[in-house]
Amino acid sequence: MTGLRETIDPAEIAKFEAMADEWWDPAGKFKPLHMLNPCRLDYITRQIAGEFGRDLAVPRPFDGLRILDIGCGGGLLSEPMARLGARVVGADAAEGNIHVARIHAAREGLDIDYRATTAEALAEAGEQFDAVLNMEVVEHVSDPPAYLAACRQLVRPGGLMVISTLNRTLKSFAAAIVGAEYVMRWLPRGTHDWRRFITPDELAALLEGAGFEVVDRTGFVFNPIGWNWSLSERDLSVNYAMTARRPG
C-alpha cells in the first residue's frame, strides 16, 4: 500500500490553523459547530450503535470499538466518543488544532490519541478502525475521490464511515456563506467555497466509487425559531450526513 497522494489543501488548512485557539469557545468562530454538535452526535451514535448492536442506554456503549475522527479539529467529536468508551484516534492536518485538542482532553481527563497527520498517512501505515468519523472535511480537500479512497482503507471490512458535508444549492449558499459568514459573522469570510460543496447524489457516487455501500442519508436542519438543529430524512438541502459500510 504505497503511493497515496496527499489530498490536503494548504490554503484550507491555514484557515483552520488561524482559528485553532477558538475551538472550545461556544461563542467564538466555531459557534455553528457547537450549535450543530448535539445533532451530529445524535446521528453518529445512532448509526454506530445500530451497526454494532450497542445499547446507548448503558454508560460506555462503545467499549471495544476503535474510532477515528479524521479532521478532528479541537476534539468536539473525539471527546464524546471517548466518554462513550471508544478508543479514539483524532487526526488533523493542522498542528495547531491538535495542540488545542491535546490540552483540552488532558484537562478533561480523557485518553485520546491525537495525531497531526492525514488520512493518506494513516492508510499508508496500515491503520484500520471499526468506524471513521469524517465530518465537514470532504469539501475542504483538493481531490475528493482520492481522499475517500484513502478513507476506505482506514475502515476495516464490515466497518462504517459516517461522513457529512454541505449540499451545493442556493439555500446552502444563502445559509452557510451569506448567513454564517456575512450576516451573523459566525465564521470568517471565505471559510467555505460554495463550488466545493457536494450534492448527496454526487457524494453517494463518490462513496460507491471508493468501494463503500451507502446505508443511510440524513439531513441536519436548522430551526431559526427554536434556534436549534434536528435530523430530517427528507431535507438534505443544506447540511447532511451519510453512513457508508465497507463490505466485509
Could you characterize the architecture of this molecule?
With 248 residues, the chain is an alpha/beta fold. It is 37% helix and 23% strand. The protein has helices spanning 10-17, 31-52, 78-83, 95-108, 119-124, 144-154, 170-183, 200-209, and strands at 66-70, 87-92, 113-116, 129-135, 155-166, 213-223, 228-232, 239-245. The chain has an 8-stranded mixed β-sheet with strand order 3-2-1-4-5-8-6-7. The chain is globular, with a radius of gyration of 17 Å.
Topology:
Blueprint: H1 10-17, H2 31-52, E1 66-70, H3 78-83, E2 87-92, H4 95-108, E3 113-116, H5 119-124, E4 129-135, H6 144-154, E5 155-166, H7 170-183, H8 200-209, E6 213-223, E7 228-232, E8 239-245
Please give a quick description of this structure.
The chain has eight helices and eight strands, in the order H-H-E-H-E-H-E-H-E-H-E-H-H-E-E-E. With 248 residues, it is an alpha/beta fold.
State the helical fraction: 25-40%
* Cα-to-Cα separation, first versus last residue: 19 Å
Strand line-up of the largest beta sheet: 3-2-1-4-5-8-6-7
Enumerate how many helices there are, as a single number.
8
Strand content: 15-25%
- Work out the oligomeric state of the chains in this entry: single chain
Approximate shape: globular
Main sheet characteristics: 8 strands, mixed
Unreliable runs: none
* Topology, number of strands: 8
Secondary structure class reads: alpha/beta
What is the succession of H and E elements? HHEHEHEHEHEHHEEE
Rg estimate, integer Å: 17 Å
Indicate the mean pLDDT: 90
